[in-house]
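Minutes, project huddle
Topic: does the predicted pose make sense with flavin mononucleotide bound?
PN asked that the exact inputs be recorded in the minutes so nobody has to dig through chat later. Recorded below.
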Amino acid sequence: MDGAEAHPRDLAMKEPVMAIDPTQFDVRALRGAFGAFMTGVTVTTTKDVDGTPRGFTANSFTSVSLDPPLLLVCLSKTSSTLATFRGANAFAVNVLAETQQEIANTFASKVSDRFAQIAWRDGPAGGAPILEGAAAWFDCAPHQMIDAGDHVILIGEVKAFDATDANGLGYARGGYFTLGLEQKAVAAAAGEAHVVVGAIVEHEGKVLLVEDETGGLRPPSTGRDGERGSVARLKNKLFQMGVDARLGPLYAVYENDKTGVQSIYYRAAASAASADEGRFIALDEIPWSRLPSQPLTDMLRRFEIEHREQRFGVYFSGGEFWQARRAAGDK
Ligand SMILES: Cc1cc2nc3c(=O)[nH]c(=O)nc-3n(C[C@H](O)[C@H](O)[C@H](O)COP(=O)(O)O)c2cc1C
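Predicted holo structure (tokens), as shared on screen:
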């Protein structure tokens, strides 16, 4: 149910998973397969009897019925918020906007006061917390709670709602994505500027780095030889390098201030840490001084952190990531 730990490695899954006894499925593989279903991201909220706001990140949201207006969210029975939701007389579903990745991370983490850093107000009907800047929100009265395996299904009747024009935050295969980033990649690829298209090819904590003409190390890319980079050329290049990898989600789109070059990088999962050209280097052993530019360094450092936390985001520039980390209290 939770997409949180799905991982691009699961993309490499080739044999169908069969089990005579379905309770013996590899839970990780099953979660990975569920993660192929692209969703939005919500923060579902309520209040304790003493009025303390509570909430958790959920991508299991589904609209259920228009008349009466019903929706559902699945909540893990292991959640620290379960007892509060069971006893609540109102809850709210906040559909996060594409700028709200950090909020999604906060409400999926174990920080004690998830509401400390964000602006929110009471919902007009039931009083459950409505988050400032949400793409849409639904203030609900509990309609039914259904026991379902290791989760409970919270069905709510919508008593009040609102929606804005903001793009929602997307989630697929353990990483966030945004329409805004996809549009920016399309614009970069169609524009006048020179475009580099590359991939962070990963296998079990190692990434593929190739030595360039000046001795610098960089992820494999196309478009540095004068011709425009493209996804087709990138796939061809990886094939020629003897790398068995499948391209995953878009990871970063940025412009190098000094050269004006637009870079578009995808994540890719390799089936093995082997290549005829370049070598796979463990993320904690990357010789950072050999990376040829600051934006490339920022992008790979971000990848290292997100890989460690098993949660990948999308950013339009390296700076946005570091700003967000600092705002979240990181040094
Ligand atoms: C993108 C994303 C989607 C998630 N979806 C769900 C979900 O639908 N249901 C759920 O119970 N947990 C989900 N989780 C996990 C919870 O947010 C997380 O386990 C929880 O907040 C941990 O704290 P808790 O034990 O206090 O609930 C999701 C996490 C992420 C990052």
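Observations noted during the meeting:
- The longest strand covers residues 136-148.
- DSSP finds seven helices and 19 strands in the chain.
No decisions taken; revisit at the next huddle.
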